[in-house]
Specification:
Among the domains are: 71 residues, Luciferase, Domain 3 (Luciferase, domain 3); 106 residues, GMP Synthetase, Chain A, domain 3 (2-Layer Sandwich), CATH 3.30.300.30. 33% of the residues lie in helices and 23% in strands. It is built from 16 helices and 25 strands. The strands form six sheets. Strands 2-1-11-10-12-13-14-15 form an eight-stranded mixed sheet. It has a five-stranded parallel sheet with strand order 4-3-5-6-7. Strand 19 and strand 20 form a beta hairpin.
Length: 561
């Protein structure tokens, strides 16, 4: 035991020293571009940029931002793009110019964009031509002075660029006309930047690197202020937990989750470049047939996703025919992984899914499990340099095995929310996650559920994740969601929403299935079949949307009684 503790201490000391060797994310990226210059960096829609080509494009764009705009170090720039080659170029360019990155959902409406831009104080934006018509309304109502407009294939070879952009504009007609005064085309910015010199910008570890907005599934999105040190620490922490079978400069990672989300951002635009991996950016993973066809073109070794994405792939008739012999690592995060999905994925691919846990406020990873045979539901032990504790309702610290709210502290945890005076994290650096969890005997974490989602029936707590995990194992259940509705007699009652492809499946059959596997008070009182469930833009089921809909219906019904 003493030797194990000494080994852990040694690993943590090594990581601390390595964190200090990277004063900012620019240095991390620069080293990757130098060490892996002639290796493939990012691929998308049939084209690939090497690290050297990405380096050059980012240098030109950074030079343009520094010499041809009013932007100063510390100003905020929004990257409002889907997963295309321009995204990593914009990230590195913004860092080199000393700007703060604001990753922004390209599907946002004008009103949503205005709200986020004003909150973050955004002064520049890079946007896809397909969405440029939306930015017309945004610019006059924000601080934005610099607008860069890019077309889908702007970083592809000439003939392919012309063809793809022509198809998008004139054949598929997915590029509406727009009129944004003083907007500059992305390629023009690269050309102008190539004619000027970029001056290095001093960036300290505690300087702000990104304002990353939470998904907002349980309330209003918040701007999480992440420093260079926060993100560098998480890169090095996560790298220390990856399987030894991974080889520097040799891996091919599939990136279907949007880079504007913290999960995709840290993993595929920081960790993977740090390892010299080739990242295949998937622009539209919701087109499952197109996605499966794209997978067939690559001998990929790393795959990252979340439960709903795994479901859509496993249910596709052609997915099981893909060659998965080189797949070394499948990572799941963003939402709870159900056992049925985990088993089906491993059966089809031969590769188990390793669960991770994190939140935007922690850059985002707190724990990850890649131990074969680990107890299902465990997200592994906390990353090195990461402290956790379980806290009860009265603020008392709980023992191993007891369920309470998870608190976390570590170098990856934010200093606070942007423009928010609340004492979060607290003065000692502890962040209350809002997640109910338990610490197992082997020090690993088991996430039980969101604190806000717990259902209380006659004083007994019911955890929706537990029910969803069991019910989703029914052969006819594609996916499901559980919420609690107010009830005068029991406090709350359980309502179950089910998506199924079997039209003959009945409420009685579902409840009978539950009775065989659940304590009586956990059996859903209400069951509703749906064609789909509300999801966030990364594919996470939003229980809150279902609850709000039900409460609104109940309120409307009361008016007529």
């Amino acid at each position: 035991m003493v030797e194990k503790q000494d080994s852990l201490l040694s690993i943590e000391q090594e990581i601390e020293q390595e964190i200090k060797s990277y004063p900012n994310l620019t240095v991390l990226w620069d080293r990757a571009c130098k060490d892996f210059a002639y290796k493939s960096a990012f691929s998308n829609m049939g084209s690939t940029l090497t690290y050297a080509e990405l380096d050059e494009a980012a240098q030109h764009l950074a030079s343009y931002l520094q010499n041809n705009t009013e932007l100063k170090p510390g100003d905020r720039i929004a990257i409002q793009l889907p997963n295309i080659l321009q995204y990593p170029v914009c990230i590195l360019a913004a860092l080199r110019a000393g700007l703060v990155i604001v990753n922004t959902n390209p599907l946002y409406t004008a009103s949503e964009t205005i709200k986020q831009f004003n909150h973050a104080g955004v002064k520049a934006v890079v946007i896809l031509a397909n969405n440029a018509h939306m930015i017309e309304e945004v610019v006059p109502n924000t601080l934005v002075k610099t607008v860069l407009v890019t077309e889908l294939a702007d970083l592809h070879p000439f003939s392919r660029r012309v063809l793809l952009n022509f198809i998008a504009k004139y054949v598929r007609k997915i590029v509406p006309k727009y009129k944004v005064p003083k907007a500059i085309l992305f390629r023009d910015a690269l050309a102008k930047g190539a004619r000027s010199t970029l001056e290095a910008v001093e960036q300290k570890p505690d300087d702000l690197a990104a304002i990353q907005y939470t998904v907002g599934t349980t309330g209003e999105p918040k701007g999480v202020a992440l420093s260079h040190r926060n993100l560098i620490a998480n890169v090095l922490q996560l790298k220390s937990r990856l399987p030894e079978s991974l080889r520097i400069g040799e891996e091919v990672a599939i990136a279907p989750l949007p880079v504007y989300h913290i999960y995709g951002f840290t993993l595929n635009c920081l960790v993977m470049p740090f390892m010299g991996a080739q990242v295949v950016l998937i622009t539209n993973p919701r087109d499952t047939s197109g996605f499966v066809n794209e997978l067939g073109r690559w001998d990929f070794t790393i795959f990252s996703g979340l439960n709903t994405l795994f479901i859509s792939l496993c249910r596709h008739p052609m997915f099981g025919q893909l060659d998965m012999t080189r797949l070394k690592l499948t990572l799941s995060g963003g939402m709870a992984l159900t056992r049925s999905v985990s088993d089906e994925w491993e059966s089809l691919t031969g590769c188990p899914i390793y669960q991770g846990y994190g939140l935007t406020e922690a850059s985002p990873v707190i724990a990850v499990s890649y131990v074969q045979g680990a107890q299902f539901g465990s997200v592994g032990q906390p990353l090195p340099l990461t402290e956790v504790r379980i806290v009860g309702e009265q603020g008392e610290e709980l023992c191993a095995g007891e369920i309470g709210e998870l608190y976390v502290r570590g170098p990856q945890v934010m200093s606070g929310y942007w423009r928010d005076g609340s004492n979060i994290p607290d003065e000692a650096g502890w962040l209350a996650t809002g997640d109910m969890a338990r610490i197992m005997e082997d020090k690993s974490l088991q996430i039980v559920d969101r604190k806000k989602d717990i259902i209380h029936i006659s004083g007994f707590p019911v955890y929706p994740n537990e029910l969803e995990n069991i019910i989703s194992s029914h052969v006819d259940v594609v996916e499901c969601a559980v919420i609690g509705l107010p009830d005068e007699q029991f406090g709350e009652v359980i309502k179950l929403f089910i998506v199924t492809q079997n039209r003959r499946l009945t409420v009685k059959q579902v409840r009978d299935y539950c009775r065989e596997r659940l304590t009586s008070y956990k059996v859903p009182r209400l069951v509703e079949f749906r064609t789909h469930l509300p999801k966030s833009n990364v594919g996470k089921v939003i229980r809150r949307a279902l609850l709000d809909e039900e409460l609104a219906g109940m309120q409307k019904l009361r008016k007529y009684l």
